Amino acid sequence: MPIIHIRIDDRLIHGQVAAFWCNSLNANRIMVANDEVAKDEMQKSLLRMVAPSGVRTSIITKEMAAKNLAAGKYDNERVLLILKSPKDALELMEMGVDITLINVGNMAHHDGTIQIKKSINVSREDIESFERLNEKGVKLTSIMVPDEPRSNLMDYLKKAQK
Question: In the annotation, is 5 catalytic?
Fold first, then answer.
């Protein structure tokens, strides 16, 4: 499987991803799989501008990501997959993408969200999606930078719901 790391980060490609994650993982491709972003040419060009030089980008729909992965298009690459939400991960799994581990980096505060960790705010829908991913056996961690100790996202969700 060419995917070496899956991260949920609603900022998508930004300095932390470019500087820390790509270097630490030795990634040579960043794939953003999100239907709305894939249709927004302005956002796509901005995201490509902040990607590290020498790292290719794919900013595509979830369906295209699943098809490209199934076809082996990235088999000789080290792909960092970035998603906006846990719902994106569930939908990719339903399309046949093998997902066993997801790191949740940043989910911004919006109306109707609760903070479960310094940089992670979740809606009711997000909580339900994380619970479904957990039930499917996906390990959910929450680390901002690669050298931070791993923590279990479900522990934070449980504490927040008490």
Answer: no
